[in-house]
Design a protein that fits this description.
374 residues; alpha/beta; 9-stranded mixed sheet; 3-stranded antiparallel sheet; 14 helices; 15 strands
């Protein structure tokens, strides 16, 4: 089975108010961190015998902001992956911020084998971008998109956010309209989340901002689905839309129980039986790897955990949960637990798959919690 590699680049030039991912602004450590990444790749290959036959299908550099790395460090990373974990790399993605995009940088990425760019636009409204503390403007995002296209990258994904404080449906429609005018291959769209520990959550607690109400959320999500599907995008995962043939192969592996390797501080790996994660401390990660010690913890996945993981990932997709993948005990449990959602048309059973209906998309968390085995 083909597999994916995820590389976490935790550096950002500045922190956005909503971000709950592990990241740091200590860019002076970029080169040292890159060397640690390369060493971790070698260490993992030497201590895990199964990785000697790892056939890499996809590579994804996420963050943080991978595009803050110098091109020399980028080249080292891709060279090491090709040397230690070779394969038929169908999809090689790098996340970029619009203000990092230059013709020279994108052309170099293409020469390294990158064939997909995921760009964090978030909004085409300058006021909302300033609220998020993004470093780019709406015009910069559009310019960056065109640079990537002109450089010959044929697969571009853009990220959007909705549900800003005081945002109305008309504001959101304008963002969607601008996104569609660029004609990207893929669009990911998320409702603004107030994760504990983020500056945004602190603003909420202090009463400086107010979350949108549920009615507005439903209207915005409905508008997103209607607009994108009417323009030929397949709604293949709760937050993801793709033109035909442009689903994210790498991210789809997470939702379809495909093993993957993760390198870097806070990165996760999964082999079907064990989940492994690196420590989320940059300095400790670097020092540990430099000393030849893999800075990771792990858990062995029992049958109940594997079933629960399938429920919370597969149900996010348009295919849904494949009951034929489950042992009889879990298949019966899933069907019994889904009976209420089946009766009120939040889930449908089709070709031995349990999948969310359009109605069920809006209460997906509740449906998943009903099916989880505790």
């Amino acid at each position: 089975m083909n597999k994916g590699i995820y590389v976490h680049i935790p550096f950002c030039k500045s922190r956005c108010v909503y971000c709950g991912f592990y990241s740091t602004t200590h860019a002076e450590l970029c080169h040292r961190y890159t060397k640690a990444l390369l060493h971790e790749m070698e260490l993992r290959s030497s201590v895990e015998a199964s990785l000697s036959h790892y056939n890499t299908d996809t590579v994804y550099l996420g963050g943080g902001t991978p595009s803050v790395l110098d091109l020399s460090d980028m080249e080292l990373i891709f060279h090491k992956i090709s040397a230690v974990y070779p394969g038929n790399m169908r999809e090689v993605t790098v996340e970029m911020n619009p203000d990092d995009v230059t013709p020279q940088y994108v052309s170099a990425l293409k020469s390294f084998g990158v064939n997909r760019i995921s760009m964090g636009v978030q909004s085409f409204d300058d006021n909302r971008l300033r609220f998020l503390r993004r470093r780019h403007s709406a015009s910069q995002a559009i310019k960056a998109y065109n640079i990537i296209r002109q450089a010959g990258i044929g697969n571009i994904s853009i990220d959007l956010m909705f549900g800003f404080p005081k945002e109305n449906i008309g504001d959101w429609q304008n963002d969607i309209k601008t996104a569609l005018s660029l004609d990207p291959n893929h669009i990911s769209a998320y409702c603004l989340m107030y994760e504990e520990g983020t500056p945004l959550h602190k603003m909420l607690e202090a009463g400086k901002v107010k979350q949108i109400d549920e009615e507005t959320y439903v209207a915005m999500y409905t508008e997103l689905i209607d607009q994108l599907t009417s323009h030929g995008y397949e709604h293949y995962e709760i937050s993801n839309f793709a033109k035909h043939g442009y689903r994210s192969i790498h991210n789809s592996s997470y939702w379809h129980d495909v093993p993957y390797l993760g390198f870097g501080a806070s990165a996760h790996s999964y082999n079907g039986k064990r989940r492994l994660w690196n420590i989320d401390n940059l300095q400790e990660y670097i020092m540990s790897v430099e000393q030849g010690v893999l800075p990771a913890e792990y858990e062995d996945i029992d049958a109940d955990t594997h079933y629960n993981d399938l429920v919370t990932t597969a149900l996010r997709t348009c295919e849904g949960l494949d009951l034929s993948m489950l042992p009889n005990e879990y298949r019966e449990y899933a069907l019994k637990s889904a009976s209420y959602s089946l009766s009120n048309n939040n889930i449908e059973l089709c070709d031995n798959h349990l999948r969310l209906t359009r109605k069920g998309l809006f209460v997906s968390d509740l449906i998943m919690s009903d099916l989880i085995k505790v």
